[in-house]
Amino acid sequence: MDKTVMYKIEYGLYVLTSRENERDNGCIVNTVMQVTSSPNRVVVAVNKQNYTHDQIVNTKQFNACMLTTETPFQIFEQFGYQSGRDVDKWKGIQEKRASNGLCYLPQYSNGYLSCQVVSMMDLGTHTMFLADVVDGVVLSEEPSVTYSDYHSRIKPAPAASGKKGYRCKICGYIYEGEPLPVDFICPICKHGADDFEKIQ
Ligand code: FE
Known about the structure:
The chain is mainly β. It has three helices and twelve strands. The strands form three sheets. The chain has a seven-stranded antiparallel β-sheet. Strands 11-10-12 form a three-stranded antiparallel β-sheet, with no helix packed on it. A hairpin with a 2-residue loop joins β3 and β4. The radius of gyration is 17 Å and the shape is globular. It starts with 13 loop residues before the first strand and ends with a strand. Bound molecules: fe (iii) ion. Fe (iii) ion binds next to loops.
């Protein structure tokens, strides 16, 4: 199978926010999808290694903020390339609170959904959450960003680092070594060895 065929599926990009014990967190996901309109429900799959995942499992609540084409790379770095277990992801980021008490991004989102989890499915590396949309607000008329926008326009081009090894095609992380272990998981974006390319 040509695995690059999977890149033909288009996605949006979202900041998924959570809050537990007065601690706010959030992560970047590309897997929010509305599945029914009556009741209004969405699904989202979240990697189990994300702190946001654990907070959603425990609280059954999240907000999904739809990112716009104006979103700078810094937002993807801040929410996607570090763990809320180690840092406060909201540090220096303008935030507001939705009616459910969880944060949303007033800047760079054109709207957000406040969601209540009704069911969870174990997918191995991820948990899939099925959730009722209990509130939603439109913030702007800016277009939503797509995954291909992110790769072609927002993500900085990889610098000529002189390093040898393998580069993650998703986030740019470099594994210095030979060979790349088949079960290697990117420590930054959590994608597997299939998403790495050899640095020529
Ligand atoms: Fe990566």
